[in-house]
Amino acid sequence: MLTLVLVVVLAALVFEFINGFHDTANSIATVVATKVLSPGSAVMLAATMNLIGAFMGTAVAKTIASGLVDTEVVNVTAQVLLCALMGGISWNLITWWLGLPSSSSHALIGGLCGAALAAAHNDWNALIWSQDLGGWTQNKGLLWKVLVPMISSPIAGFTLGVVILSLLYVCIAALGRAGPVLSRFARPRWVNAFFGKAQLVSAAYMGYAHGTNDAQKTMGIIALTIFAAQANGVLDDLPGWLSFLHPNGDESGIDPWIITTCALVMAAGTAAGGWRIIKTLGHKMVKLHPIDGFAAESASATILVTAAHFGMPVSTTHSISTAIMGVGFAKNPRALKFTVIERIIWAWILTIPAAGGMAYATLRLFELLGWA
After folding, report:
1. What is the pTM of this model?
2. Where are the domains of the chain?
3. What is the largest CA-CA distance in the chain?
4. What is the DSSP string of 175-215?
5. Predicted confidence (pLDDT) per residue in 31-59, tens digit
């Protein structure tokens, strides 16, 4: 059983690595598309900021570890978590190969829900739908932590993208009417030069925000694995070199070694890049200029940081994609390429059920083979 626990931890880190190169494209697509940074420089900036962001809190990790699956209804074994990860990894690789910016967050959540349902023999009470413990930051369950953010974050991303770019246009127009000295700063050459520099800041902010939210999801899975192993007595006779696996607290805390390992692995995955999705987000939806990239990144990063504060595992993909759509709409609604947007939306709709279905089927197969 200890070997299986280690296999699950390794699979979780594989998911984190894939999350890094899969979702890195989301966080750097705009800065590459506007030619402010080369793909290599953008990836290294994102990797560095992902690493920093991953250390900034554990609220999202705690949601994954203890806020979605009712451990009193279903026995969360290492096999269940391995199947959950396999469902999430499979869907991530499929969508990466197709160049679709789907959500790693929702792939992992879907895998966890599908595996839990299979383990509970289709008892839907295995999933925590809603549990108000008094206060917004303590709301648990799929309703508050997954479904509400899944709908609200794309709307917020689109709206904030429109608002930020519109305000920037108003400011530039005001400069153009401010007299001969200031009006030159409203010329396209000056605007592109200024926002080319400003986008370095917004791209770093986006990388940081990605780290604060996405890196924590795998932390939650590993913590859940360790807690389940501890409860089942698997960690009672650990060899000395594995003594770090003993949890230092209960499910309300995430051990430092988990945080550090996930942060480093995600940064490594980020450094591997993901050009297929960069092309979809940065080039195929709408033509972007530096001012557009700045508005989209600022909007998306603000949503991610806010969600991480409340422990909501929000999708980086959803926030940046809809922010780019909002920016494109603010520029010219007819410039948006709706066929590409339609493919992306279908990937969003299918992610949770597809990853969940794969995880469910995998656990059923494990049961037939006598592995679970």
Report:
1. 0.85
2. 2-366
3. 80
4. HHTS-HHHHGGGSHHHHHHHHHHHHHHHHHHHHHHHHHHHH
5. 887 888 887 788 888 888 988 998 888 88
